[in-house]
């Protein structure tokens, strides 16, 4: 089966939906999403969106906080651009109906929250469920647009590139590599659909599922990064995996985050004996940059042998806590933890991928007609450590820029015609007999990444991880060619590829900086300090 469209958007989170709404003004948009449309990291975002709305705040302060957090690796031009364009993008969200929280005593004023590394209150939020409010409003706008169609349970397998067409004898030469859509698994029908598009957008999110413990939903398996890399897109800065300091520690609570906004409202980090410990590590204490807090907790746990530390907000007014953090309050209660009365057991977990597909200021990759926006991209905004709540902001700004740029390209190139593309060839593949081999490999990758390529790394651990991932990759290659594709197999293949890229970038950076902390090189080394770790097939 073949579907032709002007724009193919891979992903239905904040980046993909925002892009689609703009591009739909000039053409037909197909959004594919590998599960239900709401199943995105966006939908789980708690803290909010950082932007300058307080008269006491300034772009310059937000810029300086972002640069400091990025530990010398941010692209300052991109930082300024994102921060300065931010307020307009957020007003557009309000225009389509996003309800941000207002001050209790003044409905006309936004209630701005605070998070680690921010020198001012600048986080627009909808209590502690900002992401689901943003996702709801964007989806409603998209669903009302007759130029946009969403395909749920459609999982992109690989891009259709000009090089692939040459290999299959459809065209003979290629000047610059171009992308013409993607092969997509329709999971329910169990068939591969050829989506041919003039412009293709990766908005496929992050890769937290590479790690055993993560705040991310299951969709975050690094698909976009792996697909892009296989097609020849430059991948950068993958060593900078952000660990969120405070995920709920409970045997039955899967991936539940306790927002940094809780610390922003005064919560304290305590060890098992009830002692505050962050003052030993950073003058900003609980509100230090995220890499510092996660590393400090890791060190405390290693020293004490305890399983978790505690986050305590119970000294604040009970009604305030329930009103400001209703989602966290309700969720913790399910596990018999009353946060108004007692500290919350927490541990760090993989949360955000600062690296990804390298793009320019308009979200363009090094392949024609191919863009990457949102968490899948590496734009230069985050450097070595993303500042809290800068991610939703980045997605909004880049979605607009990528839409404007790609619309312009289409018009200038006279709406270039789509080529004929080869249909998916499944060869002599048969159904996989033992699904358990996929689960075993998946578990092994997640465990080894947690143990060897986690918050603290060493050269020896990185080498071990490399060897083990290479072995797993070889096995996966066999499954891929011998068996018919399934969502699980495709995710495993992508997860292993993204893990390999993290290890490759981490091995290149022979210093400690931001989120990359290697015990063999404890300090910054300025000869690596301005270097992006770029890899390309
Ligand atoms: P996502 O929202 O993750 O969407 C990715 C989409 O791609 C999904 O629809 C998925 O199904 C689809 N997809 C993936 N692979 C494929 C494939 N192969 N084929 C088809 N579809 C595919 N950031 C902030 O700035 N502020 C916050 O308060 C905040 N809180 C967070 C809380 C949590 C629990 C988490 C997990 C993250 C949080 N973040 C926050 C980070 C932020 O939410 C994400 O970086 C952001 O939402 C990413 O948006 P996105 O559109 O790039 O991707
Ligand atoms: C949080 O609410 O702590 C998440 C904020 C972020 O990841 O930016």
What does this structure look like?
- A hairpin with a 4-residue loop joins strand 10 and strand 11 (191-202).
- With 537 residues, the protein is of the alpha/beta class.
- The protein contains 15 helices and 20 strands.
- Among the domains are: 244-351, Flavocytochrome C3, Chain A, domain 1 (Alpha-Beta Complex); 436-535, Methane Monooxygenase Hydroxylase, Chain G, domain 1, CATH 1.20.58.100.
- The chain has helices at residues 14-23, 59-69, 76-95, 130-143, 162-167, 223-231, 260-264, 290-304, 318-324, 326-334, 391-412, 436-452, 459-482, 487-508, 526-529; strands spanning 2-10, 29-32, 49-50, 102-103, 106-110, 112-113, 123-124, 148-151, 154-161, 179-186, 191-202, 235-236, 241-248, 268-270, 309-312, 344-353, 356-358, 370-372, 377-378, 534-535.
- Strands 1, 2, 8, 9, 10, 11 and 18 form a seven-stranded mixed β-sheet that branches. The protein has a four-stranded mixed β-sheet with strand order 19-17-12-20, with helices on one face. The protein has a four-stranded antiparallel β-sheet with strand order 13-16-15-14, covered by helices on one side.
- 36% of the residues lie in helices and 18% in strands.
- Bound molecules: flavin-adenine dinucleotide and succinic acid.
- The site of flavin-adenine dinucleotide has 44 residues, from helix 1, helix 4, strand 9, helix 6 and helix 11.
């Amino acid at each position: 089966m073949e579907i032709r469209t002007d724009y193919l958007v891979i992903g239905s989170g904040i980046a993909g939906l925002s892009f689609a709404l703009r591009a739909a003004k000039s053409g037909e948009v197909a959004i594919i999403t590998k599960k239900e449309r709401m199943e995105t990291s966006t939908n789980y975002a708690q803290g909010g969106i950082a932007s300058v709305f307080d008269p006491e705040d300034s772009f310059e302060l937000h810029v300086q906080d972002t640069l400091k957090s990025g530990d010398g690796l941010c692209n300052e031009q991109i930082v300024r651009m994102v921060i300065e364009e931010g307020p307009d993008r957020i007003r557009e969200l309000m225009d389509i109906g996003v309800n941000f929280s207002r001050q209790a005593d003044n409905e006309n004023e936004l209630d701005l929250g605070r998070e680690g590394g921010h020198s001012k209150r600048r986080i627009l939020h909808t209590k502690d469920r900002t992401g689901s409010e943003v996702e709801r409003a964007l989806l409603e706008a998209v669903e009302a647009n007759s130029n946009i169609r969403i395909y749920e349970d459609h999982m992109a397998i690989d891009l259709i590139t000009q090089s692939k067409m040459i290999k299959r004898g459809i065209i003979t030469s290629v000047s610059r590599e171009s992308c013409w859509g993607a092969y997509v698994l329709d999971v329910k029908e169990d068939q591969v659909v050829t989506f041919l598009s003039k412009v293709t957008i990766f908005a496929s999110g992050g890769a937290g599922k590479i790690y055993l413990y993560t705040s991310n939903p299951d969709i975050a398996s690094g698909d976009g990064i792996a697909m892009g890399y296989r097609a020849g897109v430059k991948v950068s800065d993958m060593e900078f995996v952000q660990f969120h300091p405070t995920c709920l520690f409970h045997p039955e609570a899967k991936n539940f985050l306790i927002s940094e906004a809780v610390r922003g409202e005064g919560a304290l980090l305590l060890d098992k004996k009830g002692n505050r410990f962050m003052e030993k590590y950073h003058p900003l204490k609980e509100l230090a940059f995220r890499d510092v807090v996660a590393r400090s907790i890791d060190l405390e746990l290693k020293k004490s042998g305890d399983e978790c530390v505690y986050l305590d907000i119970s000294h604040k007014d009970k009604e305030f806590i329930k009103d400001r953090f209703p989602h966290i309050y309700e969720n913790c209660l399910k596990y018999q933890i009353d946060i108004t009365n007692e500290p919350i057991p927490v541990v760090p977990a993989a949360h955000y991928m600062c690296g990804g597909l390298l793009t320019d200021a308009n979200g363009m990759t090094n392949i024609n007609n191919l863009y990457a926006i949102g968490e899948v991209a590496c734009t230069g905004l985050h450097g070595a450590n993303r500042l809290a709540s800068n991610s939703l902001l980045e997605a909004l700004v880049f979605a607009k820029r990528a839409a404007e740029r790609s619309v312009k390209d289409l018009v200038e190139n006279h709406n270039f015609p789509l080529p004929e593309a080869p249909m998916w060839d499944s060869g002599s593949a048969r159904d996989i007999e033992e699904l358990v081999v996929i689960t075993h490999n998946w578990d092994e990758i997640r465990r080894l990444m947690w143990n060897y390529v986690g918050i603290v790394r060493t050269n020896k651990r990185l080498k071990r991880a490399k060897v083990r991932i290479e072995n797993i990759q070889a096995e996966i290659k066999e499954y891929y060619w011998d068996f018919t594709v399934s969502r699980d197999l495709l995710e495993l293949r992508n997860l292993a590829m993204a893990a390999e890229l993290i290890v490759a970038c981490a091995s290149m950076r022979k210093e400690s900086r931001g989120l990359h902390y290697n015990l063999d090189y404890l300090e910054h080394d300025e000869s690596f300090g301005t270097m992006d770790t770029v890899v390309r097939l």
